[in-house]
Design brief:
alpha+beta, 5-stranded antiparallel β-sheet, 5 strands, globular
């Protein structure tokens, strides 16, 4: 895991703070299968027990803004599949 984190840090230094904030913000019943970050735009995909509850959590983060679903929530045996896009707030 350390090698993976160091590789991310070296290739895309902005991604580590995003991953850290997502870890703090998202509930334990949510799993991410994909994280894409280009400049100040982020897209996450995954599975959650209650995907609709994720938007307010992301909006309440001091680092994220303009969160919204990118497509429909799809019910699956393991939970609700989702795709969410949001922007990073400017650092002060």
């Amino acid at each position: 895991y350390i090698d993976s984190i160091n590789a991310i840090k070296k290739l895309s230094p902005k991604k580590l703070p995003v991953l850290e904030e997502l870890t703090k913000t998202l509930p334990p019943n949510t799993w991410l299968t994909e994280v894409s970050a280009i400049k100040d735009k982020v897209e996450i995909r995954g599975i959650s027990a209650t995907a609709s509850a994720l938007i307010p959590l992301l909006e309440n983060s001091p680092h994220f803004k303009d969160a919204g679903f990118n497509g429909s929530i799809v019910k699956a045996p393991e939970g609700e599949r989702f795709s969410i896009r949001f922007n990073l707030k400017e650092s002060k």
